[in-house]
Amino acid sequence: MWTWRRLKVRFPADIAPHSTEQTLYFDQQGLLKRHDYDVEISGGTAAAHYVSGLKKFSGIVFPTKRRIVPRQPNGHSVPEPLVVSIDLDQIVLS
Fold first, then answer.
1. Binning pLDDT at 50, 70 and 90, where does residue 1 land?
2. pLDDT tens for residues 34-64?
3. Per-residue DSSP letters for 20-71?
4. What is the structure's pLDDT at 80?
5. Rounded distance, CA 92 to CA 60, Å?
């Protein structure tokens, strides 16, 4: 069993993110696995954003799968409804 490390980020007022407070989860290799935030422009909707499917393009590793699902008040995510699903198969760097 392995544990993700967590980093809580608070953005200053002069930066306009979709959420001023966010939590990032990293695996043992330092790779982002999950990104939690409350979507402030839609009433503070709690989201858990998972990234996976790591592939290398032009020598840089990118997550090719993104899934965003609701997050409960206790911090646990729920699998449905699936809010956003993105699959990338080609990334071109210029």
1. low
2. 999 998 877 888 999 999 999 999 999 999 9
3. SEEEEEE-TTS-EEEEEEEEGGGTSEEEEEEEEEEEEETTEEEEEEEEEEEB
4. 93
5. 11
State how many domains the chain has.
1
Whole-number mean pLDDT of the chain?
93
94 found inside a domain: no
One-letter amino acid of 68:
I
Residue closest to 35 by CA, chosen among 49, 46, 52, 54? 49
Q: Could you tell me the CA-to-CA distances from 29 to 4, 6, 62, 65, 89 in Å, in that order?
A: 10, 13, 14, 18, 23
Tell me if 70 is assigned to some domain: yes
Span 12-28, mean pLDDT? 93
Closest by Cα among 35, 28, 29 to 7: 35
